[in-house]
Description:
This protein is of the alpha+beta class and 152 residues long.
Amino acid sequence: MIVLPSIRLATARDALAIAEMSRDQIERGLGWSWTPARVLRAIRNPATNVAVARDGDELVAFGIMEYGEDKAHLTLLAVHPERRESGLGRHLLEWLEKCARIAGVDSIELEVRADNPVALGFYGLQGYERTETVTGYYRGRIAALRLRKPLV
Length: 152
């Protein structure tokens, strides 16, 4: 039986590890836009949840969800490569979705790199449906697929 780490809101001390995981796992080949300073702003933003899962001192997953009046936007979600396929990504996404339901939003939207079939498959299994393709979304070079999941 796999024991999943607990999930909690990030603190300022988590910003560097989140930024580095974003750079290495999500933003590879695009440059580094989610710098520690940007992550710290998200952590301090009252309209954003930055959630982390740690195994001891090691960051093993994180997610950033921004809240609007009617919908939430899952900005980033990453799981350490050695922890993928353990259920951790689903566990973290469910935690964030629960927060969105409590906040009273109707749906969650997100973008996925069109060149990331693993992420597309993951979100599809979690009930997210493709709504559109955005050409050149990532630095004008890589298309994004916009996905949506209704919560009501």
